[in-house]
Write a structure and sequence with these properties.
- 2 copies of one chain form a homodimer.
- Chain A is mostly helical.
- Helices cover about 75% and strands about 0% of the residues of chain A.
- Chain A contains 17 helices and no strands.
- Chain A is globular, with a radius of gyration of 21 Å.
- Chains A and B meet through α2, α4, α8, α10 and α12 of A and α2, α4, α8, α10 and α12 of B.
């Protein structure tokens, strides 16, 4: 019985969906249908035009959101599905990388990540200062340009079976380092903004973050190899392997947050740790769940875009300039640092690090809340973050053009046609 | 970067999780870990004791909820995952049944469902009236005893590979009819409660519900067989089959709600319609998503139980009596109607229809909101609904003892050991 639907009719859908507060997610199936359906419809349209489907899915969020149709507002239900989706995406991506590989790439990846943090920070700061921002605002704009949101790139590469490429592995490794660096920059900046910059606290923060990543990297996989089979033998409930994998995924995501890095870094490490012991079944579940939930992650990014903010034409130009700076600075920073790997791979790595996505948006929200960012700068940063996620996929597609899907993905991509 | 976690420390977890309002689901990974982990831990404990894991997962909800630890309160995030979980559960279960089979069983299933509605309604009404309830309260208590919540039974049967059994198929068919009947009883009862009982409206409601189910049943599968391959050929985005299946699932769930029946009935019908054309891949995704999300559905049921309500010993006795009436009346009603199928199957069908779960709870909430149910009766009905979901699984396990898993599930169950 659909008790909740008795007083509802078709014309009420939009108002019913937006609703905020009490009604949030009341009608779960309707939200699922509209968000998933719209995302896939636009993805299909973009694939027809030879463009990556991800961009269509983000634009579906823009269309459904307050900017255009106003049918859906960001709410807890969507946030939950989006968060779960991006956790599974990085979990699945982590399964394509060996811990030993990440360790091997560590040195070079750090170089790429550092260059990809310093150049964007300086360009963002400079641009904002040149435009007349106060010091603290300029610093926050620079900070928003720092952190790569690796989810978008991961989705584009995974959909094309390119995760095993040398450049892809470097992007993933650099993204982990980038996240730790981003944490430090933000800790330093928000500490300064609050007038309580503390070197010891910063050292502790960075120690915790680095320690967590290294511990998971060096001890995670061997521990899993020892504990996994024992649990599997002892547990009586069905699907014990799946249960262990999911608990590992959620636990590492939580630990990552406690250590100060993003939950998705924990999810990525969990995937890597489980990669060798995971059965085909767990891979299928991770893959299926990702396919189901990633549209909610992409739509959520689009929902943050409020086109009304751009009735002021000057703001349009600032946003365009900021987006150009965001794209150019990451390509220049990461690309130059990766040049020893060859021009082609350097270009691939550069464009792979371009998306800022939800990470840039969170920095913007913190800046707004702290009074460091004004409304116009906030709108420009949010739009920049969304724009980079839409600019990057076609660039990534071009950069990897002609590369055949490799490894176990090849079969799948071929089968899917 | 885990921006949201910077101001959090371990001792804050419980308060942070409960939070209500703004903080709902802020920390998605932590909620996922605690709910999923606790559910699976108790499931494991119950399997060790030879009891069905589902009961452990519901009890995990009782333990985490306001009744005991108070770590988690029902919130939008959990509701979304629970709703999605039970949709996938019924979708997956639907794939185990052919439309032709449901049509063939229609007549007998209607007999079983009618008996399973009339007997519990009268027993619930009688018991409440005997205890001194007002007329309207007694009628609502009777109504809460009507509708079977087929999710629990489906999960127990699916986990044991028993969905293809004759008795299982009859349970599923009867549950669909039961849901339509439940809708009518509730429409009549709430109409009367509001003093606006209207025969024409009731006829329209029932016509819409029956029409939806019949249309999906007779036209769904042939239409899917014709449209599916065309879409598959024309669509360019990866995983087009999966996209089509998910859109069908969500669309039928929404249509079901508009037609007045439960979203899960739509999900069940979607599974049935897709059963023959669905690839192994879609089955795997449906299976994996179910395994991942069903614990959230089970925990959500447990979260509704507030043990504090039972500080009044008289209420304990009322609840026990109501639970006994709920169990006995369904077994008697459905079992007697199914007696021509043989004693064994009649018993299996009877116990399979026992769980009231979330459906009984929703009726209770409507009764409370309408002022028809007093606080004590509300608490007793909610507890009855939870208790039936915990009493049923061991009974179902016993009733099906010795039956070997059949069909394609056999292999899986054997593989999982």
């Amino acid at each position: 019985m659909a008790y909740t639907a008795t007083s509802m009719n078709i014309s009420m859908i939009p108002a019913f969906l937006i609703g905020g507060g009490v009604d949030d997610g009341l009608n779960v199936p309707l939200t699922l249908l509209i968000v998933f359906g719209a995302a896939k419809l636009l993805a299909e349209a973009f694939e027809w035009m030879g463009q990556p489907g991800v961009v269509g899915e983000i634009l579906a969020g823009v269309a459904l959101g307050p900017g255009l149709l106003g049918w859906i507002a960001p709410n807890e239900s969507l946030k939950t599905l989006a968060d779960l989706g991006v956790l599974f995406l990085l979990f699945r991506v982590g399964m394509e990388m060996k811990p030993s590989e990440l360790i091997r790439l560590g040195g070079k990846a750090t170089g790429v990540a550092v260059a990809g943090v310093v150049v964007p920070f300086l360009m963002g700061w400079g641009l904002a200062a040149w435009y007349g921002s106060r010091m603290i605002e300029a610093v926050f704009v620079g900070t928003a340009l720092v952190a790569t949101s690796v989810g978008i790139t991961a989705q584009v590469l995974a959909a094309r079976g390119l995760l095993k490429e040398k450049a892809s592995q470097m992007i993933l490794a650099a993204a982990v380092v980038d996240d730790v660096l981003g944490l430090l920059v933000l800790a330093a900046v928000s500490g300064s903004a609050a007038g309580e910059f503390d070197w010891r606290k910063l050292l502790l923060t960075s120690g915790l973050a680095v320690g967590f990543v290294l511990a998971a990297l060096f001890w995670g996989a061997p521990m899993m190899k020892r504990v996994g089979p024992v649990l599997d033998r002892k547990m009586r409930a069905a699907e014990s392997q799946l249960t262990v994998a999911m608990v590992a995924l959620f636990a590492l995501s939580v630990l990552a947050e406690f250590a100060g890095v993003a939950a998705i870094v924990g999810a990525f490490l969990a995937g890597m740790i489980l990669a060798e012991s995971a059965s085909e079944k767990i891979r299928d579940v991770a893959h299926g769940t990702t396919e189901l939930l990633v549209p909610f992650f992409l739509v959520s990014i689009g929902l943050q875009v409020d086109l009304h903010a751009f009735s002021d034409p000057r703001l349009v130009w600032v946003t365009v300039a900021l987006t150009v700076a965001a794209v150019v600075s990451k390509i220049a920073g990461c690309g130059l640092a990766a040049l020893p790997m060859g021009k082609k791979d350097a270009w691939r790595i550069g464009v792979g690090m371009v998306p800022r996505g939800e990470v840039g948006m969170i920095v913007a929200q913190m800046g707004l809340a702290a009074g460091a960012l004004g409304r116009p700068a906030f709108a420009a940063v949010v739009m920049m973050a969304a724009a980079t996620t839409m600019v990057a996929p076609p660039l990534i597609k071009m950069a990897f053009a002609g590369v055949a899907p490799a490894g176990e993905k090849a079969e799948e991509v071929l089968r899917l046609g």
